[in-house]
Structures are given as structure tokens and as C-alpha cells.
Amino acid sequence: MDPVDIVALTRSLVDIDSTTGREGECGRWLADFLRGRGWAVDEQGVDATRFNVIAMPHAHLAPGTAHGAPRRSHPAASVVFSTHFDCVPSFFPSRVDGDKLFGRGSCDAKGILAAQVSAAEQLRREGESRVGLVFVVGEERGSDGARAANQAAAGTAGTGPRFLINGEPTDNRLGLATRGILRLKLRASGRAAHSSFPELGESAIDKLIDALIELRGIPLPSDPVLGQTHYTVGLISGGVAPNVVSAAAEAEVMFRTTSDAAEVRKAVTPLERRVAIEHVLDVPPVKMTVVPGFDTAVFPYTTDIPFLQAWGEPLLFGPGSIHVAHTADEWVSIAELTAAASHYVTLAKALLRQA
Questions:
Q1: 340: part of which helix (H) or strand (E)?
Q2: CATH no. for residue 129?
Q3: In sequence order, what DSSP letters do the residues of 264-308 get, joined into one string?
């Protein structure tokens, strides 16, 4: 087997628009690429047009596992590399300028995917057959791909993977922990009236503002590793016209959690005197396995890891900086990609010795 050209593979993936919801073409290209290198590939359907790409070094997939077929078996790999191949908008193609490889997804996370494939191929060349690949859709918008992939590994307790090496931009450091998220919607109700007689109405916007001011003073949970829970008021809407007392208003609040979300929900209960609180989304914080000899860090973002529990004990590692992911000139260092492939090999070997 020839070594993988990480730059060429990254550019091929980047040049296919796989904005979340449009991953089908990229998934087909990736599945064909891996089959061409001898992997047993399952195109695990997520919806009518999108699928995860799950690859094993030998024919460990149940017969008839074509795109969307129900029978799957993924018990063979002890260590699995995983990341996502969907991207945020807006798409722009790849280019290389010196050591920098630009393009949407170059950093988050198609360069990571290429480095993982390169590492897996090196391990295969050395005779290692206990490493698999799980590449998912939908990470940027709710992790529906990861949830589907988790179902594919469910029921393999005792025979399934021991470790999951998930790839996100960590500057080639191992993640000690990641924060969770809790999204709440605050809804205020009022009574409409002509603004020249405000006493005849009840302003929902005023109620919402009062609730948000009160929120500023509420103590939120903290953790010795992850630090203090914080939040952002990301969306506000309300009212129908400047000369009408508002009958309805709402705000969406995103908490970056460091503990069980129930603690945050309990802390904000006093706001229910002013607004109704609707639960939108909860992703728990995660503390992860580490391997000696690597720099480590805590990361404030969330990943697919909470939804891939059936794929083994999680590690988080990848080239590139989160500070350039999602930006208008997203890029990744080619030297860092190459180094990451070597680091992935080292991590996998250390974990395989444990497995």
C-alpha cells in the first residue's frame, strides 16, 4: 500500500461542498476512496441523502450492508479514529500558500480526517488490523450522524472498540475535557395596547429584559478542571411595531456548561416568575482519557464525543486551531497535518497495548 498523500486527500475533500445537509457527494467520494485502498466500507444511512462512512480493515461488516441496509456489525476494531466531514457555510475551495492549506473544512475537520486515514494506513502497512474509521455527517448542526453511528455500535458490549480517538482542532494537544452546552429559550407574555396608553397593556419585552438582567446576577456552577459556567444571549425577538406594547418576546440563551445541566436549570428557576423557560438542547461536558507524553488542554467547545459512547473510551486530538475554524479564511498548517498523522499512530499504538 502506498502512503496517503495528506495534502492531496485534504484538498480533494475540501473541494467538495459538504455544508451540513449536503454531505452526500463528499461521502460517496470518501467511501470510494477507502474501498479503493482495501477497506470494508459501510455507508450508514442517516437520512435520504446523507450517510456516515464506517470503514474496517477487513470484512467485519454483516452481509448486505449497502447504503441504508439495516444489518451492521462493527465489533472488530479495538481503536477507532473518528471525525466529521460536514462543514459550516460558506463553501470555498482549497488552495495552498506556503505551509498553509486554505479551504472550508481544511481545519475543521477534513484535514484531520486525512491525517487519520494516513495514520490508519501506516498501521495497516505495519500489520495492525485492529484500527477502524468512523466518519460522520451532521456534527455542525446537532450531531445526527454521530447519534446514528452510535446505534451501529450498540449491542457490541465486550466485543466493541475499546478506545475512540475523536478529531477536532486542538493544536495537536490531547483534550483533558470539553464543556457541554445547554440551550434555553426564555418566553415572555404580555398584553398588546396602543403605546400612547401603556397602562392598558403589559410589555413582554420589559419582562424579558428584567429576566435577562436578573440572570446576570445568578451564580452558576463551576468545575475545578473546566472552570466557570458562562452563557451568551444569542437571539432576541419580540413585539410587532414601535407603537404597540409588545404581547410576546423571547430570547435564546446558550450556556457553556461545566456540570450536569440540571444544576443550571435549577439555578435559573427564579426567572420563571417573569418568563417561561423552554428546554432546547443539552450536550453534557466530557472528561477524557489521556496518554503520557502529549501536551494537554481543556477546550470550551463541544464535540460528537457525547453521542459516540458505544465506540469506546474517548480521546480528543487533532491538528489546527479552533480560532481559525469557521472563519472566512479557514486554513491548517501542512506541517501540523503531517505531524498529526504521526501522533495518531503513536496514540493508537499506546492504546492498542492497553487493549
A1: helix 334-354
A2: 3.40.630.10
A3: HHHHTGGGGGTSEEEEEEEE--EE----TTS-EEEESS--SGGG-
Question: Residue 199 belongs to a domain with what CATH number?
Answer: 3.30.70.360
- For residue range 102-122, list pLDDT tens digits in order: 999 999 999 999 999 999 999
- Tens-place pLDDT, residues 16-54: 999 999 999 999 999 999 999 999 999 999 999 999 999
Q: How far is CA 262 from the centre of its chain?
A: 22
- C-alpha cell read off for 188: 415572555
Specify the amino acid at residue 65.
T
Of the residues 43, 121, 139, 250, only one is catalytic, namely: 139
Q: Is 139 a catalytic residue?
A: yes
The cell numbers describing 107, all together, are: 481545519
Domain-ending residue, one of 283, 305, 322:
283
In the three-class reduction of DSSP (H, G, I as helix; E, B as strand; rest coil), residue 257 is classed as strand
Domain residues for the domain of 275 are 180-283
Query: What angle, rounded to 10 degrees, do the helices at 334-354 and 6-14 form?
Result: 110
Q: Whose CA is closest to 256, among 224, 233, 290?
A: 233
CB 144 within 8 A of CB 46: yes
Residue 1 located in a structural domain: no
Domain count, the chain: 2
Place of cell 428546554: 279
